[in-house]
Write a structure and sequence with these properties.
This protein is an alpha+beta fold and 231 residues long. It is built from four helices and five strands; from the N terminus they run H-E-E-H-H-E-E-E-H. A five-stranded mixed sheet has the order 1-2-3-4-5. The termini are far apart.
């Protein structure tokens, strides 16, 4: 601190100037006020600058949140339904082909309910394969659809073909979760039982055919022997 009267440098704790004897109590208080005022002014400037920066960031954050919300709504309300409908149509899963389509965007599930006529086509294809575990066309198309949707959409989608024609038959015939097939009618107990019965009938038919052939062969040989002996 300096003496306001003579300019002598003095300690802050000194009450009178050792050079001129001037009281320093008033001078010390004035200098403290000057220093405190300068510090407060600086803090106010810093606070104003910080508030301005926060305000600008709030506007930016609010804009970013709006954009994100619009993107999410656009994805679930426009992109997903459109993509699902296009892929299903391209793979033959339409009302014209005997399917009632139900899809849930939130749970990521697609159910293709086959009508009686379409179920009849499934049955003919399975019987044509002798009830074995070979894939039929509808199952192949379902797998293709599942693979395409997994590449286009977020998360694992559950897509299935179901039926309500036969009450004793499982409602879900084929089902994919993501790209993995988790349900197949051909490996169900009902189809395996039908396969067993089919093979049993085939074996019985083969045995009957063999017996018939043996009987016919025996009759022919017997007739020839008899003809020879009669001569």
């Amino acid at each position: 601190m300096f003496c306001p009267n003579c300019g002598e440098k003095v300690a802050l704790t000194v009450e009178f100037c050792p050079n001129c004897g001037k009281s320093l109590k008033t001078a010390g208080a004035q200098q403290d006020n000057i220093l405190n005022g300068s510090s407060k002014h600086k803090t106010d400037r810093e606070d104003g600058s910080l508030n301005g920066w926060i305000y600008k960031q709030r506007k930016f954050i609010s804009g970013a949140i709006v954009i994100i919300v619009l993107a999410i709504l656009g994805y679930f309300l426009i992109y997903v339904p459109t993509s699902v409908n296009v892929v299903l149509k391209d793979n033959g899963f339409t009302a014209q082909n005997g399917y009632t389509i139900k899809n849930n965007v939130l749970s990521r599930t697609i159910t293709l309910r086959a009508n009686t006529n379409r179920v009849g086509h499934f049955e003919s294809a399975i019987v044509g394969n002798n009830y074995d575990t070979s894939k039929i066309d509808a199952e192949e198309q379902l797998g293709k659809t599942a693979n395409i949707l997994s590449g286009k959409l977020v998360g694992k989608w559950d897509i299935k073909i179901s039926q309500a024609t036969y009450k004793e038959t499982a409602a879900v015939l084929w089902e994919y979760v993501g790209t993995k097939e988790v349900t197949r009618y051909q490996t169900s107990e009902e189809c395996l039982r039908a396969r067993k019965e089919y093979l049993q009938k085939q074996a019985e038919q083969q045995e009957n055919d063999d017996n018939t052939s043996a009987a016919i062969g025996g009759a022919v040989v017997g007739g020839l022997v008899g003809s020879i002996l009669s001569k």
